[in-house]
Write a structure and sequence with these properties.
- This protein is mostly helical.
- The chain has a domain of about 180 residues.
- It has eleven helices and two strands, in the order H-H-H-H-E-H-H-H-E-H-H-H-H.
- It has a two-stranded antiparallel sheet with strand order 1-2.
- The radius of gyration is 22 Å and the shape is globular.
Length: about 270
């Protein structure tokens, strides 16, 4: 049920509101300043690379190119293997994401989670304190008894394993290795927060941010569909292109680099 509600929210947010307010150049400057020089330069380079990519692969003006790009993502659920890239430049951009730490705003290795310096404002952005939004689950007495029995059984299983220390230690070690190398999306990225903080009431940007707050990960084809339902006048804004980089183009660059045999992440 929750999934269906969020899909309705997602399509509704992008499909109903048509008002548009362009974000001021001053706020774009403030947005980049929020990330610091290194990360800002990496993100600006990615936006510039996106512009070149659109010119190389799609016909028409900028709006028409973006529509064609989103239409493809919507229908095919991923990048086209025939798209043209500047592989050398893209590898430098991805390296700058890594060097500046911007990559961690996209995804993390398991071992990096505990090293993050958490910003209380960003955490509150993703976890607003609102009593009306809290979900309360009523557990019937028979359900509670079933839960307690399952818990008791789990404890008994653990006691059995504990008798064999070597097996337990081996399992812990394997779990630790898997967790260390696991790639985990950063559901508390500063990018949606900064888009929210520095935009000037742009409904296209705010609708995207609202959905990110609600559901976190958005399937690429669903997001493409939602954006195509929005007012296309917002397509040429810097913030909208940052969304395209964050949700689509960054991963398209990575996919191309992997296909070209360029592996920037030795743990993979």
């Amino acid at each position: 049920m929750r999934f269906k509600v969020y899909i309705f929210l997602f399509v509704g947010c992008f499909g109903i509101l048509k008002l548009h307010a362009q974000t001021s150049p001053d706020n774009v400057v403030k947005f980049y300043a929020y990330f610091g020089e290194g990360q800002a330069q990496a993100l600006k380079s990615a936006v510039k690379s996106l512009d070149t990519f659109l010119d190389q692969n799609f016909k028409g003006n900028e709006e028409e190119q973006i529509v064609a790009f989103l239409e493809y993502i919507k229908e095919e659920h991923g990048p086209d293997s025939t798209w043209k890239y500047n592989t050398t430049n893209d590898s430098l951009i991805i390296f700058s994401f890594e060097k500046s730490g911007l990559r961690k705003e996209f995804w993390l290795y398991g071992y990096e989670i505990d090293t993050l310096v958490e910003d209380e404002k960003v955490l509150n952005f993703y976890r607003p304190v609102n009593a009306d939004s809290l979900e309360i689950y009523d557990v019937a007495e028979d359900q509670l008894e079933e839960i307690l029995l399952e818990l008791e059984k789990s404890l008994e299983d653990f006691d059995d394993l504990e008798q064999n220390d070597s097996l337990v230690n081996y399992q812990i070690e394997q779990d630790s290795i898997r967790h260390r190398d696991m790639k985990i999306e950063n559901w508390e990225s500063k990018i949606p927060y900064a888009l929210y903080k520095f935009n000037d009431g742009d409904t296209l940007i705010m609708n995207y941010v609202d959905v990110k707050q609600q559901v976190g990960t958005i399937l690429s084809y669903l997001l493409a569909d939602g954006l195509l339902r929005s007012d296309h006048k917002g397509y040429q804004s810097e913030f909208f292109k940052i969304i395209l980089v964050t949700e689509f183009y960054y991963y398209a660059m990575l996919s191309n680099l992997y296909n070209q045999g360029v592996n920037l992440y030795p743990n993979d």
